[in-house]
Amino acid sequence: MGSLANKIVAMAAVLAALVTGGSCAPKKFPPGPNITTNYNGQWLSARATWYGQPNGAGPDDNGGACGIKNVNLPPYNGFTACGNVPIFKDGKGCGSCYEVRCKEMPECSGNPITVFITDMNYEPIAPYHFDFSGKAFGSLAKPGLNDKLRHCGIMNVEFRRVRCKLGGKIMFHVEKGSNPNYLAVLVKNVADDGNIVLMELEDKASPGFKPMKQSWGAVWRFDTPKPVKGPFSIRLTSESGKKLVAPNVIPATWKPDTLYNSNIQF
To answer: Would you say the pTM of this structure is higher than 0.85?
Structure first.
């Protein structure tokens, strides 16, 4: 009788652990401190996963939560990643660059690759978590072992923030749905810090730069009851505080869903 009672107590303990998310539940980690622009070269630890097609750029539409399209093409070339909270920073980490390397798995080359943050993943599997494109994840492997490394699914990596080295100038895409009372603009191809923390707009009818609101990802918007009139100049502030002005970069004849090239770059 005592033996049966002991078994009942033990079973009750197991059931309680399952209900309360005991030892059977995966451990969750709070996010680490935000990664800043100190560029001190120090390697930090992270967990890495991958998504999408094995040799793809991540999302099936080659986009992501930053709003940047065609990340399979230059300058991103599919070397993209989702970042968790301290990397993605609710979109203000969009475009930032990281060197990543893996050394623990026998398939790992140990050589770093550089990835762009173009998407988000807030799964709490580690204080720092990169969800790579299949192409980027496989590129961490020794020659010929790309697929074998991808089969591991999840692994430990080392990473550090680096300055983005890009050719060409900064580009602005006027988003679909924009009109004289609602102007939404995506910024891409940003060198150096790679990410923008403030975008300001100056229109012809009302001189002086006015702050835009971050809409989502790398998209900033300007809402106004009084219609704005182009051409528009845009002032950018990068995460390290550097400022640049793109004068009259969006013309008076602007149209939604149109990309405009600037002549500026950090």
So the answer is: yes
